[in-house]
Design brief:
The structure holds 2 protein chains of 2 kinds.
Chain A (H helix, E strand, L loop, with lengths): L1 H16 L1 H44 L6 H7 L1 E4 L19 E5 L2 E2 L21 H17 L4 H6 L1 H7 L4 H30 L5 H28 L3 H30 L5 H12 L14 H11 L11 H36 L6 H13 L3 H29 L2 H6 L4 H6 L20 H34 L2
Antiparallel strand pairs in A: 1-2, 2-3
Chain B lengths: L1 H13 L1 H49 L3 H7 L2 E4 L19 E4 L16 H6 L4 H17 L4 H5 L3 H7 L3 H30 L4 H26 L5 H30 L5 H14 L5 H11 L15 H36 L4 H12 L4 H27 L22
Antiparallel strand pairs in B: 1-2
Helix pairs in contact in B: 1-8, 2-3, 2-5, 2-8, 5-8, 5-9, 5-10, 5-14, 8-9, 9-10, 9-14, 10-13, 11-13, 12-13, 13-15
The chains are: A mainly alpha, B mainly alpha.
């Protein structure tokens, strides 16, 4: 091992002499710091803005005057998705998803106002986050610094000298990896700081795992780079091979994964789904119209339940009951379509995930997004929570409609102003609105979700280790 | 002269790795164009199918409606952003901004932002279109083919011999660069010309797109020559060129976005939504005359109609919907202005980044850029106005319901109308 340490020390000495390595490292650290600071301030700003909007929306709801409850069903409510604390490390899909949803009765609206529509072409390049620097930029710097680790020694003849002094090929390789690993560790600093800052607001376990994940990722690159350098015939060969692999892994394969996923699991457009939903809803009936024939079985059941002959005799407002029943039926249909859409997206995502076999960067991105809570699954979690929220307050309002209003007044309110006045319930009731506080999935769930990606990285590491074994044989050989 | 060219062609022909590089470019360019064509074909079909289905649904809705107000409430009208002839080469914003939307005569601000059909995870990776290949991958192949056009000879020990025998060294290098760059340009461009011609793209547009590709090849060839003439080793030159590529292709655009976020933040979309909703809902509790007055200010032609006395009347309902839009108009315009302003600023970034410049230029030619998305937004707004005004005579004149009067809808202008 002491042989390896000596080799590592010599290699680090070489780095500090060679301008390229020093300049690259300084530029990288500068960039990573800018990325960490700007990303943290952006996420903090977004979080503050969105939770301010959330408060504003809640205040507005509570401040509504005395009203017919169904008016409040249509007044609706807005919910905003606040970014999780670790979004400062990896914003994930945040820019590509809508940030707010309007919740109202009878409908499930889509999330609107995504950042990508507001920032035009540039957002398509990703965002300068710590995640991006580590996933894409750091590996390239490691390549530029480390591609010649072995080829250089071989060309100048120093490799043979080392071996004749009894240094084993294994310790030469280990020493080189150690030195390159130091560079990797240094570039891990900004993410370590960012994850530590975010940890108290999230979970220490997740923050640590995230940092460890990135450490594993950089280790994969370190091992691969030194292995290729040991196997290549010349420095140029090593550089070209490594650059080609980097371009493939970081730039090209992600796009290929999109195309394959989109082709393998075709998804209908929003409008097509909307039309399908409308067709499915036609059988549900109009819950504004208590005489809709779709509700006649329901009416018979209610009359039987209360042992009454006419709906006018019921102790509750039948129109309100229809509203409750109608919302339930509608929601069932809407949820079926929403779940179908989310399942489809998860299938696409699963197809794209297979490309981690071709790109460690893709594996890392998935690992990072899952842990940070900024992946597709987290967006779906937001959509589901928003829907639960919608259903809860809409049905609470519908129950008010059924329990506090007289049927006769309710039926006459469009034509009789006095009846209309009597159908207004007190504004105190609006406090039925539950609070909406969106948080990413618990730490355990996110860790579980990150496991497959971590396994892919493990396989890549295994490949690298096999590569270094082969390199060691080549170095020892004639 | 011709002999020099033929000799260089012979070299190129024998060099397997260079040929592989050229073949890769040819495959990528062709593949990306086919992917784009399939996507655009899919979008065209979706638009067509949507029009048919929507029309069927609209006719069913007017049949089922008891009155004009109910029909206006229940009828959706189709709008779509038809792909241009070159859209397959640069998909641009067509995956993130909607290319079709159905609207009805209700307040538009509550409808026009609805769009979430994209799987965000696929959006994050981006599409593999021709613009991407030219903007990002083409420079890397230029670097691969040209970085060692001098240094390889030096490293092989042929440099003194070459400069002694070929006479004019300059001509030798020029020929070599010319042959390699020319081959590269053809591999990048031929697929576009062939598929473009097959798709019936106009010659002028193809020429403009070819110029964009030529500019990109020229920029990177010059950069490669500048660095390749250095007295460095092949690997140092390659590393330096890739660093330049990384800086101008990734770091500059991302840094540019950070700066734009600081100096010109996007207007708050949420404000529009909240404002519009408050205005629409307040109307239920306000005296109806107030709402009607605000409506008549915008539409004086209906101010002579009977006052609204019943607790509910459709003409009042649609009047306050429009008043909701009017209230949010300022915030809504500010939002679109901020998007346009940010897009202009992105244009400045393209002077520092060929990758951004190429994508923007191709997306402009293909009408898939932010400008095109904003144009579509404007066409939706115009059409929505036409729909509202189509219904007003029926609502304000209290005509008795006749479904056949609604069969012919106002026509949506799908193309550029200036």
């Amino acid at each position: 091992m002491s042989g390896a340490l000596k080799i590592a020390r010599a290699e680090l000495g070489y780095y500090s002499h060679s301008k390229l390595a020093v300049v690259a490292l300084i530029a990288l650290l500068l960039l990573a710091t800018v990325a960490a600071i700007s990303s943290a301030s952006f996420v903090a700003g977004e979080a503050a803005e969105r939770s301010a909007h959330q408060d504003e929306a809640e205040t507005a709801f509570l401040a509504q005057p005395d009203r017919h409850p169904h008016r409040m069903v249509h007044y609706g409510h807005y919910v905003f998705r606040t970014p999780p604390p670790l979004a400062s490390v990896d914003p994930g899909v945040d820019a590509y998803t809508g940030t707010s949803i309007f919740l109202e009765g009878h409908r499930q609206n889509t999330a609107t106002f995504s950042e990508v529509r507001e920032t035009s072409t540039l957002t398509r390049f990703g965002s300068l986050s710590p995640a991006f620097t580590l996933q894409v930029l750091v590996p390239l710097v490691l390549i530029l610094v480390g591609f010649s680790a072995i080829t250089r020694e071989r060309r100048s003849g120093t490799l043979r000298q080392l071996l004749s002094h009894g240094v084993t090929p294994g310790s030469v390789l280990n020493g080189k990896m150690l030195a390159l690993g130091v560079i990797g560790l240094v570039s891990l600093l900004p993410i370590l700081v960012a994850a530590t800052v975010a940890a108290p607001k999230d979970s220490w376990l997740v923050s640590l795992s995230l940092t460890a994940g990135y450490a594993l990722y950089l280790l994969v690159w370190t091992v691969l780079i030194v292995a290729v350098s040991g196997l290549a015939r010349s420095g140029a060969g090593a550089l070209v091979a490594l650059l080609a692999f980097w371009i493939g892994a970081a730039v090209f394969v992600p796009r290929v994964s999109t195309e394959v996923a989109a082709a393998a699991v075709p998804a209908p457009s929003q409008v097509e789904t909307e039309l399908e939903i409308n067709a499915a809803l036609r059988g549900v009936g109009d819950s504004h119209n208590a005489a809709d024939p779709n509700f006649s079985a329901f009416r018979a059941r209610i009359l039987a339940q209360y042992d009454a002959e006419h709906i006018e005799e019921l102790p509750v407002n039948f129109r309100g009951l229809v509203a409750v029943e109608g919302e339930e039926r509608t929601t069932e249909v809407l949820n079926r379509f929403a779940e179908e859409k989310m399942a489809l997206e998860m299938q696409q995502s699963a197809v794209a995930a297979q490309f981690a076999a071709l790109s460690p960067a893709l594996a890392m991105r998935r690992l990072s997004m899952s842990l940070a809570g900024t992946d597709l699954a987290n967006h779906h979690r937001f959509l589901r929570e928003a829907e639960d929220h919608r259903f809860e307050f809409v049905q609470a309002l519908n129950r008010l409609h059924a329990e506090q209003l007289a049927y006769a007044d309710d039926a006459a309110r469009s034509s009789d102003a006095a009846a209309e006045q009597r159908t207004r319930v007190s504004a105190d009731n609006w406090s039925l609105l539950p609070e909406f506080d969106f948080e990413p999935a618990p730490a355990r769930v996110r860790l579980q979700r990150a496991l497959p990606a971590a396994a892919w990285l493990g396989l890549w590491l295994l490949l690298g280790v096999i590569g270094t074994r082969a390199a060691a044989r080549r170095i020892a050989g004639p | 002269m011709i002999r020099d060219w033929l000799r260089e062609l012979g070299f190129l022909h024998r060099d397997r790795s260079q040929l592989a590089g050229l073949a890769l470019l040819l495959v990528l360019a062709t593949g990306s164009l086919l992917i784009g064509r399939a996507e655009i074909e899919r979008q065209k079909n979706a638009i067509e199918q949507m029009q048919v289905l929507n029309e069927r649904e609209r006719l069913a809705a007017i049949q089922a409606s008891p009155d004009y107000g109910g029909a206006a409430y229940a009828s959706y009208y189709a709008t779509w952003n038809a792909p241009s002839e070159l859209a397959f080469a640069a998909l641009g914003q067509r995956d993130i901004s909607p290319y079709m939307l159905r609207v009805r005569a209700l307040a538009l601000e509550g409808q026009i932002y609805a769009a979430d059909s994209l799987n965000p995870e696929l959006g994050l990776s981006g599409r593999l279109d021709y613009a991407f290949v030219i903007a990002f991958l083409l420079p890397l192949l230029v670097i691969f083919l040209l970085h060692d056009f001098i240094s390889s000879e030096r490293e092989a020990g042929r440099y003194p011999l070459l400069t002694a025998t070929a006479g004019a060294t300059r001509r030798l290098w020029l020929t070599r660069v010319g042959v390699r760059t020319g081959a590269l340009f053809l591999c990048a461009l031929l697929p576009l010309l062939i598929i473009g011609a097959a798709e019936g793209v106009s010659l002028g547009l193809l020429l403009l797109a070819s110029m964009v590709v030529a500019m990109q090849v020229a920029v990177w060839t010059l950069l490669a020559i500048v660095l390749a003439r250095r007295d460095w080793s092949s690997t140092t030159i390659a590393a330096a060129l890739v660093t330049v590529w990384l800086t101008v292709s990734l770091v500059v655009p991302l840094g540019g976005k950070l700066v734009i976020d600081r100096i010109s933040p996007a207007a708050e979309g949420a404000d529009i939504a909240l404002t519009q909703r408050e205005a629409v809902n307040d109307a239920w509790d306000l005296p109806k005359a107030n709402t009607m007055q605000r409506f008549f200010a915008a539409h004086p032609e209906w101010s002579d109609t009977d006052p609204v006395t019943a607790p509910f009347h459709w003409k009042w309902y649609f009047a306050f919907q429009h008043v909701g839009d009017l209230t949010a108009a300022e915030a809504s315009e500010a939002y679109r202005r901020s998007i346009a302003a940010r897009d202009r600023l992105s244009g400045y970034v393209s002077s520092l980044s060929p990758a951004v410049a190429v994508q923007r230029a191709l997306q402009r030619l293909a009408s898939t850029d932010v400008q095109a998305a904003l144009d579509y937004d404007r066409r939706i707004r115009n059409y929505h106005t036409a729909i509202r005004q189509f219904y007003y005579p029926f609502l304000f004149n209290d005509r008795s319901y006749d479904a056949s009067a609604l069969r012919l809808a106002p026509e949506f202008s799908a193309g550029d109308d200036g």
